[in-house]
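Progress against Task 2.4 (sequence-to-structure conversion) is shown through the following example record, which the project officer requested during the mid-term review.
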Amino acid sequence: MIPKYIITSPNENFTNMVLSTTEEVSFNDFMLIESAFDEAVEQVLKVTKKHNISVIVSRGVTAKMIKNATDIPVIEAEATLFDLLSAIIQAMKISKNIALIHHEKILNEEFFNITGLFNINLKEYCYRNFREIEKCVSDAYDDKKEVIVSGFGYTRKLCKKFGLEAVMYSTSEYTMKEILSRASLILYAEERQQRHENQLRTFINEMPDGVIYLNENNVITLINSTAKKLLDINYEQDIIGKPVSNFINNSDFIKIIRSKNQETGKEIEFFGNKILVRSTPIFFKESYIGTVVIFQKSSYISYLDHNVRRQNLKKGMLANTTFEDLRNTTVSLKMNESIDKAIQYADTESTILITGESGTGKEMFAQSIHNASGRRNHPFVAINCAALSQNLIESELFGYEDGAFTGAKAGGKPGYFELAHNGTLFLDELGLLPLNVQVQLLRVLQERQVLRIGGIKMIPINIRVIAATNSDLLSAVENGTFRHDLYYRINVLNISIPPLRERNDDIPLLVRHYISLYNAQFNKNISSCSKDFISAFQNHDWKGNVRELMNYIMRIVILCESNVLTAEDIVKSEIHLSYRPKKDGLDMDTANVPDENRLNLEPGTLQQMEKDIIEWYMKKYDGNRVRVCSALNISRTTLWNKLKEM
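Structure tokens generated for the chain above:
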């Protein structure tokens, strides 16, 4: 039998206990060494050189000495306080003057309080090595102790020399069973690790990427099959343990590995093939210990990138808009301030809340933030919370396992959170999420883990969340339709996008931009638009904002038969813009906008006058309830109730 364990025994009692316990639990693959201290260490080292020992079980000083002599795990088979107490009770039958001799101080005041109930004279003596044991026995003799309690068999011989009685304590069978169980678990973990290492070697060898591991001296310690193919190295040639420069003399490659810096992707030519090389230096406790080099043909990388992008486009997981696109269509101070803020936020990992009316471009801001962040090469997953089916909203967001519910897809399905892993998740119209889903969303944001419907395993995710809303979430919080804790978890950084009616100077830019876009899309050749056309667009009250403008331009471009757009094209397209001619130098719309210094109340009931005042302030502040409450000096709840009555 080839041993997998070693057990050392310091005395006959311990040996008998080990033999009976191992037989009882069928623990067979061990070698028993009946010695202690230096002699035990010497015998242990001889056995470990001959056999592949996984665990050593030992006691006291011997266990500590073995730990210092080998890297093999050592389990200390120490007696428990109950074992000591049992031996002391046995010693009381001989005398009440008792000495306890063992290798380190382990007894506390509580133990002595317990033994004090026995009305005995107990004293503890400790030794650190073999030579100090005799002194402990001698000191006990001088202290008039009549019986010695010890766990080391050699102590019994010394007691006879001094004419003292000896009682040996030992590890109980129950404790020994626990120790043997731990030893078995260590062996199991070791074997499992070896299996994993073999699987890892197989995996690395089958990787489509070439992999080489170099030690601190740039000597090859691992190379897979793909690397040999790419480097045109003969399969029969033994290259492990030899300097990499013996096989690769490319100056760019040698420069990369000698720099000890990370290389994220450098194209190098090997034997007529263009190879993309990546390298990562490895450090342990600030000391350089080697480099992992991964490389692949550039043509294959391009092929993979094409496929990934094609698949992501199908899933709608790519962000197309950038901050440059936003800058090109605005001269508005407010809009540029929002863009500047978004650029600053892009460098962070914090959650962002984008507010703005429907059609102002909240998703375009989210895409721009994603493309300017460190997650730009990972998925951008956009979800319109209002478009999700109320019955399936949880399964769409969090995914589900196979058989989670009737109609569930075989094999289960990942949710949007999983699909956005390492990327950005954009939640549009967040305020429309049901309360029960808001609770789950809050947990995901806090713990960064997802539990699929019907699942039992938490799935870790690494995402950046950008949320958007066109409603007043604070009012929703007050009304109980949106959780306050989720609101403060989402509203870490915030961006407010101005409506199009506050960006009047941007309309000519937007019109030209979308004309150019739809020219190409619908094979048109519209070169310009007249002043009356632009004026009509600038005087319209854009309730649908940029989205409304896009749709109007698309319709006009499709129906237009000339190269210049005029106001007549607007009429032909059956588009009704709220255009009003100017009067006395003022736009009619502007003239009708209430001013704080001109609030004219018609005589009527108090209720009607109150309604007129609230309507006037709501128009003045474009429906901003916070500002209305501040101007009228009333609470949000009061305003909400008044609006409901109206």
